[in-house]
């Protein structure tokens, strides 16, 4: 696939990276963004400010880990690749060092069902993957396990990952996860919040399947 064929998507990857910083869920050059293409994915480059990134800087990668372009890919390309390999429904991945999500991750603490909106991430909780050095296959393996039956996870002592069928959806989920992380962090300043039980979360998840659809029973 040529650069011309991926031009609009390269622009969208950059716009998403800029938007996550503007939303306050990422700062500086941390984090990374990718989008699926035929045979691989596009990903933000390593160590380049998003404001200075051009479409030609976005790196095209194959599922075998081959990079094409004038820049080195983000050091976290492995978990992007592995998510795309394992999850055919995912077409975009956003990784951020969001302050509240990362605070919880530095405590090795996921987000339990203190609020029904936890279900937006696909399950009854948002897991925290065990720690591994950034950019390693071990980190990718931990992240993939934490994302089993989930759309988002935290990364111990690191940050968060959010996935989606499009870049806008992945970014929106990352913002929602950070909002939930902030609410949970604030709640635990007072005490341990009461949690919704598995039965209620199952009900919420079932209702989320129909959310936005016409249904007189909702």
Ordered list of secondary-structure elements with their pairings:
Elements: H1 7-22, E1 32-37, E2 40-43, E3 59-62, E4 67-68, H2 77-86, E5 92-96, H3 99-105, E6 128-129, H4 137-146, E7 152-155, E8 159-164, H5 167-190, H6 198-210
Parallel strand pairs: 6-7
Antiparallel strand pairs: 1-2, 1-5, 2-3, 3-4, 5-8, 7-8
Helix pairs in contact: 1-5, 2-4, 3-5
Question: Could you explain the architecture of this structure?
Answer:
By secondary structure, this protein is α+β, with helices and mostly antiparallel strands. Helices cover 37% and strands 15% of the residues. The protein contains six helices and eight strands. The protein has helices at residues 7-22, 77-86, 99-105, 137-146, 167-190, 198-210, and strands at 32-37, 40-43, 59-62, 67-68, 92-96, 128-129, 152-155, 159-164. Strands 4-3-2-1-5-8-7-6 form an eight-stranded mixed beta sheet, with helices on both faces. The N and C termini lie far apart (44 Å).
Structural key phrases:
37% helix; single chain; alpha+beta; 218 residues; eight-stranded mixed beta sheet
Spatial strand sequence of the major β-sheet: 4-3-2-1-5-8-7-6
User: What string, H for helix and E for strand, traces the elements in order?
Assistant: HEEEEHEHEHEEHH
Structural class: alpha+beta
Oligomer: single chain
**Beta-strand fraction estimate:** 15-25%
| Stretches with pLDDT under 50, minimum 5 residues | none
How many β strands by DSSP?
A: 8
Question: For the terminal residues, how far apart are their CA atoms?
Answer: 44 Å
Nearest-angstrom radius of gyration?
A: 17 Å
What would the principal axes of the Cα set say about the shape? globular
What is the mean predicted local confidence, pLDDT?
Answer: 95
């Amino acid at each position: 696939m040529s650069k011309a064929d991926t031009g609009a998507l390269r622009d969208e990857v950059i716009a998403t990276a800029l938007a996550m910083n503007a939303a306050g869920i990422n700062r500086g050059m941390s984090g990374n963004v990718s989008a699926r293409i035929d045979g691989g994915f596009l990903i933000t480059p390593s160590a380049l400010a998003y404001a200075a990134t051009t479409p030609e800087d976005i790196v095209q990668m194959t599922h075998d880990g081959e990079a094409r372009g004038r820049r080195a890919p983000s050091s976290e390309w492995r978990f992007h690749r592995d998510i795309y390999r394992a999850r055919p429904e995912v077409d975009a991945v956003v990784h951020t060092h969001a302050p509240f999500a990362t605070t919880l991750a530095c405590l090795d603490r996921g987000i339990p069902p203190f609020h029904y909106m936890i279900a937006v991430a696909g399950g009854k909780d948002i897991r925290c993957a065990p720690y591994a050095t950034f950019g390693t296959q071990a980190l990718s393996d931990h992240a993939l396990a934490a994302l089993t039956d989930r759309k988002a996870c935290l990364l111990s002592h690191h940050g968060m990952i959010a996935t989606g069928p499009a870049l806008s959806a992945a970014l929106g989920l990352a913002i929602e996860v950070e909002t939930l992380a902030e609410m949970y962090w604030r709640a635990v300043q007072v005490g341990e919040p009461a949690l919704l039980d598995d039965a209620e979360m199952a009900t919420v998840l079932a209702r989320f399947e129909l959310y936005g659809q016409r249904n007189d029973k909702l």
